[in-house]
Design a protein that fits this description.
mainly alpha, 6 helices, two-stranded antiparallel ribbon
Length: about 180
């Protein structure tokens, strides 16, 4: 028995895809994968180098994820400057407010991360790594102003590296919109 069905005209239609079959996106190709990887490495090395030069920590885990999103999927909404900047800084503020009101705990970090999703949706600036930024703000003890300035600077640098990588043809068109 065939998995194909017949249409009213008698033509066979391909079998329906199973829920778990074939859902992965196609491989982008060796060149885009290598260049996206290279652009991600370069952007993170820039954050580390500038952090070392200024004795400030710029390369934090959420920004590593941001670099990956910008350099590997530059046309998607989470990669756009609005999502990166508002998502990261808004979630950082939310995390700092949460810790000021309720203290440092995993419970507060979990709630702050969840609330950051709502904030990003409200701001129309969804950027998944920013939920981790809210967690970081709660579980670490950063100086608030310094943390937010470094977060904004790191985010802006990643956007600028993405823009430069796009102009050089290393990654696809970036950004597709600014704000």
């Amino acid at each position: 028995m065939s998995n194909q069905t017949q249409t009213p005209t008698g033509a066979a239609t391909p079998p329906a895809r199973g829920r778990w079959a074939g859902g992965a996106p196609p491989f982008p190709g060796s060149r885009p994968a290598a260049l996206g990887t290279l652009a991600t490495v370069v952007s993170l090395v820039i954050l580390v180098a500038l952090g070392e030069a200024t004795d400030q920590l710029l390369m934090i885990a959420p920004l590593a994820a941001t670099a990956m999103i910008i350099c590997s999927t530059p046309v998607l909404p989470p990669a756009q400057p609005r999502g990166v900047m508002l998502g990261q800084v808004g979630s950082g503020v939310l995390g700092l407010v949460a810790v000021a009101l309720f203290g440092h705990s995993l419970w507060v970090a979990a709630v702050a991360a969840g609330l950051s999703v709502g904030l990003m949706l409200l701001l129309r600036a969804v950027h998944a790594p920013a939920a981790a930024t809210a967690v970081l703000a709660v579980l670490q003890d950063p100086a608030p102003l310094r943390f937010l300035v470094l977060l904004a600077v790191g985010s802006a640098l990643l956007v600028l590296v993405g823009l430069l990588a796009s102009r050089l043809g290393v990654i696809g068109k970036y950004p597709t919109y600014w704000w």
